[in-house]
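Box 4.2: Ligand-aware structure prediction
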Amino acid sequence: MKKPEITEFKDLLEEMQSRLRGDVNQLTKAALGIDRQDGGGESKSPTHMAELGSDTFEQDFSLSLAANEQETLTEISAALQRIKDGTFGLCEICVKEGKSPAQSAILKPRLRAIPYCRTCVDCARKREDVGI
Ligand SMILES: [Zn+2]
């Protein structure tokens, strides 16, 4: 891949990273009742059982959302590392199978959609087929 293209993906990844980092912090804080914007000086303890229920639900939901985003962040860090290593944009599986870098390249539209993806479309499909 050419350098300007790598830079484009690096910018994209870094932008996603900082946005997700903010999200994860916000979601986790909100879920745990820290830094609530609607809280003000009011009591944070729920007054009705119904409220308690929905609070717990929202907390679980926000935390699982935060966990998903945390996973994406891990993938983004790995992709940024691949940029440093010079292996960004290559399908991990194709490389392992001994294909040349040209044959292992992940197509640009796929990278634009998921800049942190590790495999080409073909390998991703094969992986789904065998249920990994
Ligand atoms: Zn592949």
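In the box above, the bound molecule is zinc ion. The mean pLDDT is 86.
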